[in-house]
Amino acid sequence: MATTDDEVFFLDQHVVHERVLFERLESELASGGAPSQALLFPEPIDLPPAARALLERWRAPLERLGFAFDSGAAGGVVVTAVPTLLKGDEPRRLLEAAVDELGGANAAAPAVDRALAFVACRAAVKADTPLAREEMERLVADLAQTRTPYFCPHGRPIVSRVSMHDIRRELKRTW
After folding, report:
1. CATH code for the domain defined by 2-164
2. Contact 41/81 with Cβ under 8 angstroms?
3. Fewer CB within 10 A of the end CB, N or C, for the chain?
4. Tens digit of each residue's pLDDT (9 = 90 or more) over 113-155
């Protein structure tokens, strides 16, 4: 939250961080690819045939973002690396969530943008995570450097503002 004499601004920290990460990933892809973290223990995942087909369809953009996976026994999939931003997440859940997200209602959207948005969303700080003042200030400073500081990659607004005039009117105050 921030204020001026005339307005109060509310920023969604998850959406702010998502925008910052999305544009950072775009830059990394433009300069060769996002960093990847190899898994010490590759993780086998059993997926139904439709999900495996979808994963193959999205293989190129997912690999550009740092995922690596191979075909496993009996048609399964073995995850061997994940994007560095997501190294703390469970690989099985990541790949299952990627299949759900990429096969969802916006399946026709550009592949790389959808995959970037997925990784940025999963890596972004969560809405209910307490942040120190310095972390908040860093997020806002990073947001100021983005090309699209008003919406997350999924189209959600980053900031909501309320005029002091509206607040005074609501509270029936004249100060």
Report:
1. 3.30.1540.20
2. no
3. C
4. 888 888 899 889 998 999 999 999 999 999 999 999 999 998 9
